[in-house]
Amino acid sequence: MIKLTPILLAILYGIAMYRFSAWRTAKELDQKSIELADPMLKVMTDQMAKALDLPKIRVHIYEIKPVNGLAAPDGRIFITRGFYNKFRAGEVSAAEMASVIAHELGHVALGHSRRRMIDFSGQNALRTALAMIIGRFLPGVGIWVAGMITSLLAARLSRADEYEADAYAAALLSKAGIGVGPQISLFEKLEALTQQGGAPMPAWLLSHPKTADRIAALRALETKWVTKT
User: Fold this and answer.
1) Is the backbone of residue 111 left (phi > 0), alpha (psi -120 to 50) or beta?
2) How many C-beta atoms surround the C-beta of residue 91 within 10 A?
3) Does a structural domain hold residue 115?
């Protein structure tokens, strides 16, 4: 029982972190978001809602500057103010914005958004347990090794989720009559959009697959669908 104590403590820590993270995320989004009310984007979301047999797709603007999209654990979809400003400035088209919304809908539909919160808490628990265990054999470097292992696992899971959400978005956009083209064109300009002004690439983009690989995967899907028809 004594040997299991670090693991049990780590599990309890993970549960506590999950509950706290979910509460903090919901509170942050409630305080810093408003519902998106843009007539051009509504045309796009209405097309996707019809394809999904839904009355409406509700999207919110998250009042932060970085260019990003977000699927909250409770299923809400967010576009950052920074991303929306790019659209208003003409740097991103309505169809390209629709591809972001479709991608985030994919995260919700496939259970990624809720699982990511659980994974985040689990990673913290795993990191704590590994640090305790490895630290017994490698004093002084246990924390570093544990952090490296959990970071590699997290990155691999995140990249797999992104490919799945991309495929979901491609299917939805095609069914809605918008097509995969805007999804690809946005990827081609996304890194430039996020790095304008010399700002560093956001962490969420670093944990994603390479843009060229995502585009190649979408083109392969598009070719497969055309061949079948």
Assistant:
1) left
2) 15
3) yes
139-151 b/e with 16+ CB inside 10 Å = b? eeebbeebeebbe
DSSP state of 81: H
Q: For residue 68, what are the CA distances in angstroms to 53, 77, 86, 166?
A: 26, 11, 11, 15
Task: Give the contacts of 52 (CB within 8 A, at least 6 positions apart).
Answer: 105, 172
Task: Tell me if 161 sits within 8 A of 107, measured CB to CB.
Answer: yes
The range of the structural domain enclosing residue 106 comes to 5-224
Q: What is the pTM of this model?
A: 0.72
C-alpha closest to that of 67 among 78, 81, 55: 81
Question: Each residue of 12-65: pLDDT tens digit?
Answer: 655 666 566 667 777 878 888 899 999 999 999 999 999 999 999 999 999 999
- Phi and psi at 210, nearest 5°, equal -65, 140
**Is 199 contained in some domain?**
yes
Residue 61 contacts residue 79 (beta carbons within 8 Å): yes
Domain count, the chain: 1
